[in-house]
Amino acid sequence: MSSELADVGLIGLAVMNLILNMNDHNIKVCAYNRTTSKVDHFLENEAKGTNIIGAHSIEELCSKLKSPRRVILLVKAGQAVDDFIAQLLPHMDKGDIIIDGGNSHYPDSTRRCLELESKGFLFVGSGVSGGEEGARYGPSLMPGGSTAAWPHIKDIFQKTAAQVKGEPCCDWVGGTGSGHYVKMVHNGIEYGDMQLISEAYDILRRGLNLSDDEIADIFAKWNTGVLDSFLIEITRDILRFKDTDGEPIVAKILDAAGQKGTGKWTAIDALDYGMPVTLIGEAVFARCLSSLKAERVRASEQIPGPTVEAFKGDKQQFIDDLEQALYASKIISYAQGFMLMREAATVNGWDLNNAGIAAMWRGGCIIKSVFLGDITDAYRQNKDLESLLFAPFFQQALAKAQPGWRRVNAQATLWGIPIPAHGTALSFFDGYRTAVVPANLIQAQRDYFGAHTFKVMPGKENDHMKTGQDIHVKWTATSGNVSSSTYNA
Questions:
Q1: Which residues are listed for substrate binding in this entry (predicted)?
Q2: Is 129 annotated as a binding residue?
Q3: 278, 361, 443, 475: most buried, per Cβ within 10 A?
Q4: Is position 183 annotated as part of the catalytic site?
Q5: CATH number of the domain at 183-433, please?
């Protein structure tokens, strides 16, 4: 065994593929696991013949690392991360770097970053996406935290990450908890993509009465065009996969979707920031509705709806319309996700590189797609782009998709096939492009029942209503003259 010091230490062997990936790129790794017998087994099997070394204690791990020490934690999010940090610190020096590569909630990463910096250490919270295959052959890495740490980990991270067109799917995200924030939004977008695809599947299955093999062929074709992506690709493969009896396995799977919380975190954060990230929210709620299996079965027996009649139009045209509807809805979802990151950056003082974020997602991760290259280009052409919907490329794409998008939404509604994600995407699109929405009536109602006040529309001022002023009207003879500033019901 080589006596040379390791470039990086890694705690947690659940994702040992990442260690093997680093070794492939001549990065010397020292591996440690709380159950030390797993370290020995790893060294004697998967890591045999490599330059990977092991440690049987935190102290030994730290003693085998180059300075500044770089330690990556790949452990369960939450208390385990704090516990390992506490164990590491006595054996580390100021300027050493602790990297949390787990699925931590970004406020925890912000707290850890500030706490460690106050003690002279550096912290990085890095989103990691791509699953087992990504870990082995190149994940998408989203590091953020102590900026001073980046020069010391850049080479390791960018060599380990997936490569697209000669560029690593990894770049510095920003300060404190921004790395895990971007990963959280990535996961929320993943929820949205999966829901959109499942709705398209449902429309083809129940609306057009197509078999799983026929739908797989459609997804295969879609994967050669604007929808070319990992999720479309695996959907094609899933639909073709047969059980031992020759029946598609997907048709036997209970229709109750699980979730681990990152989609919910994104939806909650959107509400906290007041950002209309409607598609991810609907995707989360759709999973919640799917879990009410017994209740849905009872409702299907007792609550009538429209009959799904045989489609009498041009079937191929409708399939083409559905492709465009899925593409347009996907554009809306990503636009909403970047709107949320824009607001979070403003509130938290992060200088996020939107082009870099989109580029990180082009490969190695679950939402990787050709489409992300177009987003990267849009932000590289205009780093201050207010919304993807203002980018000429996406304006043209939505103009092309719009007729079919509307036809699909209308037909699904007539069939009674639920399309929460597609439906909210189109509603957001129409709301976003509407100069005057009916919120004026809501403001009048709020002032009527709660004296919440309103502001007057520019151009509608008069002697007693001026632009910019908070105005309360006596709607009835019993209305008071005092406006409310604290009543929020």
A1: 103, 129-131, 186-187, 191, 260, 287, 446, 452
A2: yes
A3: 361
A4: yes
A5: 1.10.1040.10
Q: List the pLDDT tens digit at each of the 489 positions of the chain.
A: 445 899 999 999 887 889 999 999 999 999 999 999 999 999 999 999 999 999 999 999 999 999 999 999 999 989 999 999 999 999 999 999 999 999 999 999 999 999 999 999 999 999 999 888 888 999 999 999 999 999 999 999 999 999 999 999 999 999 999 999 999 999 999 999 999 999 999 999 999 999 999 999 999 999 999 999 999 999 999 999 999 999 999 999 999 998 877 889 999 999 999 999 999 999 999 999 999 999 999 999 999 999 888 899 999 999 999 999 999 999 999 999 999 999 999 999 999 999 999 999 999 999 999 999 999 999 999 999 999 999 999 999 999 999 999 999 999 999 999 999 999 999 999 999 999 999 999 999 999 999 999 999 888 888 788 888 899 998 987 777 766 664 444
Is residue 70 a known part of a binding site? no
| Cα–Cα dist 77/85, whole Å | 12
The catalytic position among 183, 264, 330, 368 is 183
Asked whether 58 and 69 are in contact (CB, 8 A), the reply is no
Cite the residue boundaries of each domain of the chain with CATH code 3.40.50.720: 8-172
Q: Kindly report, as residue ranges, where domains of CATH 1.10.1040.10 are found in the chain.
A: 183-433
Q: Which two tokens stand for residue 65?
A: 């690392």
What sections of 203-276 are H helices per DSSP? Answer: 212-222, 230-240, 262-273
Indicate which residue of 28, 64, 190, 282 is catalytic.
190
Nearest-CA neighbor of 449 among 418, 487, 411?
487
The CATH classification number of 8-172 equals 3.40.50.720
Domain with CATH 1.20.5.320 in the chain: 437-488
